[in-house]
Amino acid sequence: MIRVSAFPRVHVTLIDLAGVTGRKFGGAGFAVDALPTVVRAEGARTNALDGFDRLDARGRADVDALLMRLLGRTDQGGVRLTLEAAPPQHVGLGSKTSLLLAIAVACDRIGTLGLEPEAMRSISGRGGASGVGSHSFFEGGFIIDGGHPWREGESFAPSSAGPPRESPPLLVRARFPAHWRILLLLPEAAAPSVSDEAAFFARNAPIAPDAVFDVLAGVYHGVAPAVAAADLPALKKALAKIQHRGFKQAELAAQPVLVRSLLSELQAQDGVAAGLSSLGPLIYAIYAAEDGLARDWVLKRAAEHASVCVADASARNRGFETDQING
Question: Do 180 and 122 share a domain, yes or no?
């Protein structure tokens, strides 16, 4: 019996939703050492799922399809999976990617499938847009991926729309500063702020070509060097710029007023670097661990905007964990 613990990611931004670089999508983000997805697995005669009723219908269907692909590679009868813990779904934490890859690792270890990380990424069906979630699952840290080759006439669709032809390449992996803390803020009784991701992408992409280059500059000469140099003021400036350009601007505009106003207040506060993760509604606020005043100020603003802190954590600079269970 084996237990796999996977960790969520914050997604800072998608990059090219115009195809002007010869690539499409790509993204930047980082892993968070909190709110793990925990899957326990053991061999069984037939497949059995415990605790998965917390997932929505699409999530359960994706798990079933993944098990069919995985167990088709072995003569093992089946697997019993127990979902011991999972973060909120559809809020910007990449919970689906964490879950499917955790199951892939668990089945690989139980069935001795001999799968390499690239094979697991492929068989999971994730990474159709950005590879931040799949790379951070294995590597942790701050990630920039290179998206996918752009082919004229292709549409832009989220990762949930279907499996990619190939995994997005890992371009940058850096350690996230250990003395930075991350507050994850979620509106109370949060529901997905964008209920139909595919329709949202269709309405808002492609974006203007000049916006792509602004986002590229913000990621590669803003966020990345700020992380590498542990420069929180520079990170604050870069994140504030990115939130109002490209696809992220549309993601932010789709949020409820309380989310947008909270983020605006956080961006105006010294000592806090903040942004919207993925399609939201999750907001992340980064502060220096020694700055208790900044932390308390953020928590007070969150409460005033009907949002709760679901984690106060460090970034995670390593990938998933496994442990063997006897009995």
Answer: no
**E-only strand ranges, 237-301:** 273-276, 283-288
Lookup: tokens for 263: 């983020």
User: Are 86 and 161 within one domain?
Assistant: yes
Instruction: Please state whether 19 falls in left (phi above 0), alpha (psi between -120 and 50) or beta.
Output: left
Query: Under DSSP, is residue 144 helix (H, G, I), strand (E, B) or coil?
Result: strand
Residue 138 sits in the same domain as residue 180: no
Q: How far apart are CA 172 and CA 192, in angstroms?
A: 29
Q: Which amino acid is at 274?
A: A
Query: What's the length of the chain?
Result: 327
Instruction: State the DSSP string of 3-37.
Output: EEEE--EEEEEEEESS-TTSEEEEEEEEEBSSS-E
Q: Do 29 and 55 form a contact (C-beta atoms < 8 A)?
A: no
Q: What are the CA-CA distances from residue 242 to residues 212, 238, 248 (Å)?
A: 10, 6, 7
**Cα angle 108-114-118, degrees, rounded to a multiple of 5:** 85
Q: For the residues of 72-105, what is the DSSP string, one character each?
A: TTS---EEEEEEEE-PPSSSSS-HHHHHHHHHHH
Question: DSSP labels for 194-227?
Answer: SS-HHHHHHHH-SPPHHHHHHHHHHIIIIIHHHH
Q: Summarize pLDDT for 96-152 with one digit per residue, the tens.
A: 999 999 999 998 888 777 889 888 888 888 877 889 999 999 999 999 999 999 888
What is the pTM assigned to this prediction? Answer: 0.94
Residue 32 near residue 315 (C-beta atoms within 8 A): yes
The tally of domains found in the chain comes to 2
Does residue 83 sit in the same domain as residue 225?
A: no
Q: Residue 66: which region, alpha, beta or left (left: phi > 0; alpha: psi -120 to 50)?
A: alpha
Across the range 292-302, mean pLDDT stands at 98
